[in-house]
Amino acid sequence: MDLGIDGRKALLTGASKGMGRACAMAIAREGVDVTIAARTEGPLMATAAAIRAETGRSVTPVVADITTEAGRAAVLAACPDPDILLNNAGGMAPGDFRDWGRDEWIAAVDLMMLPPILMMRATVDGMMARGFGRIVNIVSRSVKIPQLELGLSNGARSGLVGFTAGLSRQTIQSGVTINNLLPGIIDSDAQREHLAAMVTPDGPGFDEIWQRRAAANPARRFGRTEEIGAWFAFLCSNHSGFVTGQNILVDGGGYPGTY
């Protein structure tokens, strides 16, 4: 299928590893020139080189922390008028809400809610003026299936989803869609870090927790980052112009509800 985005420009945050990298690779294969941002230089440059080698597309890596004003300014200077925007950020460590005070909650909002909103604010009007735009936020299935130990993520990411629901209805008449991908268990560095944080001295080890997670999913496996990348590429395509304000679960059937 020709996605119709050859020659477009994309700005992707959190794109050096895992799902962000898979998203960048997926649209570069479709002829999109990409600007990729992350905080750590080594993995970012390696990803840029891999995308160039496989696709031949222009790749601009920017070492930046999107949670800061300076970081957002740096990536927007490198790609001031993107046709496609991916907002992707890691989550907060699991824990007990009794241990979280104001500082922890503000840190969660500053990581998972406000930076995507500010990136949308900086880019959406230009997209609307040009008559085309695709904004995708990688969120989490925790907004549909809250996990007690992920309370910081449950709250901050739900705030982003709620904001997106309103904005997306205002932009689609100008050809700009905004949607959220809700990954379930995905075989990624972030997933491994999350499960490693759940290991306790008197509990099961990492390998046992990993295997239990896979066995508990209806698909009996972890998802692949490339599967997230494929969904992202389709949401960015010309074929997805009538889909906006949606929260798309990619979780192997892990969500138990009907709606």
Summed up:
The protein has 259 residues and is an alpha/beta fold. The chain has helices spanning 18-28, 41-55, 69-78, 102-112, 114-130, 151-171, 189-196, 206-216, 225-235; strands at residues 9-13, 33-38, 59-63, 84-87, 133-138, 176-183, 247-250.
Give keywords:
single chain, seven-stranded parallel β-sheet, Rossmann fold, 259 residues
Topology:
Elements: E1 9-13, H1 18-28, E2 33-38, H2 41-55, E3 59-63, H3 69-78, E4 84-87, H4 102-112, H5 114-130, E5 133-138, H6 151-171, E6 176-183, H7 189-196, H8 206-216, H9 225-235, E7 247-250
Helix pairs in contact: 1-9, 4-6, 5-6
Description of the molecule:
Helix 2 links the parallel strand 2 and strand 3. The protein has a 7-stranded parallel sheet with strand order 3-2-1-4-5-6-7, with helices on both faces. The protein is globular. It has a single domain (9-185, 224-250), classed as 3-Layer(aba) Sandwich (Rossmann fold). The protein has helices at residues 18-28, 41-55, 69-78, 102-112, 114-130, 151-171, 189-196, 206-216, 225-235, and strands spanning 9-13, 33-38, 59-63, 84-87, 133-138, 176-183, 247-250. It contains 9 helices and 7 strands; from the N terminus they run βαβαβαβααβαβαααβ. With 259 residues, the protein is α/β, with parallel strands linked by helices.
